[in-house]
Design goal:
The chain has 144 residues and is α/β, with parallel strands linked by helices. 30% of the residues lie in helices and 20% in strands.
């Protein structure tokens, strides 16, 4: 059966819920979603807190429920090699989803203008807690 988004490549750097659920829906419709996670435990919702800051290495159910239909890759985006690999992937991608704060996108060279120069057809989706501009733009969105 042909899926509506078959052949679409999505690079997903998002974490927690909004971004992962959005990219999961794209994967459900046939897109090839590659989730890029940091070294160590990966996306921070992959692990679950227990007790006084200790973490369980068991998979968190919210991570499992929001990340089906994805492949996963570990990259250190603070390293030159990790960034080089990511940029190569983004040149061939159709969609980029991230929920870093705007200042983090800029610092990593992953802001809209930088990625537009690499791939002018890339759909850039930045899911933030407080938007791209305004007084709270660099505050992280948190769930209490």
């Amino acid at each position: 059966m042909n899926m509506p988004l078959e052949g679409l490549k999505v690079i997903d750097l998002s974490h927690h819920m909004a971004g992962p659920v959005a990219s999961q829906r794209l994967g459900d419709m046939g897109a090839d979603v590659i989730k890029v996670e940091p070294p160590g435990y990966g996306e921070w919702t992959r692990i679950r807190p227990i007790g006084n800051g200790w973490v369980s290495e068991d998979m968190n159910t919210s991570f499992i429920s929001a990340n089906r239909n994805k492949r996963s890759l570990t990259l250190d985006l603070k390293s030159a090699e990790g960034k080089k690999i990511l940029l190569k992937m983004l040149r061939e991608a159709d969609v980029f989803i991230s929920n870093f704060r705007p200042s983090v996108h800029k610092r990593l060279g992953l802001d809209y203008d930088a990625l537009r120069r690499e791939n002018e057809r890339l759909v850039y989706c930045s899911v933030t807690g407080y938007g791209q501009d305004g007084p709270y733009k660099d505050r992280p969105g948190r769930i209490c």
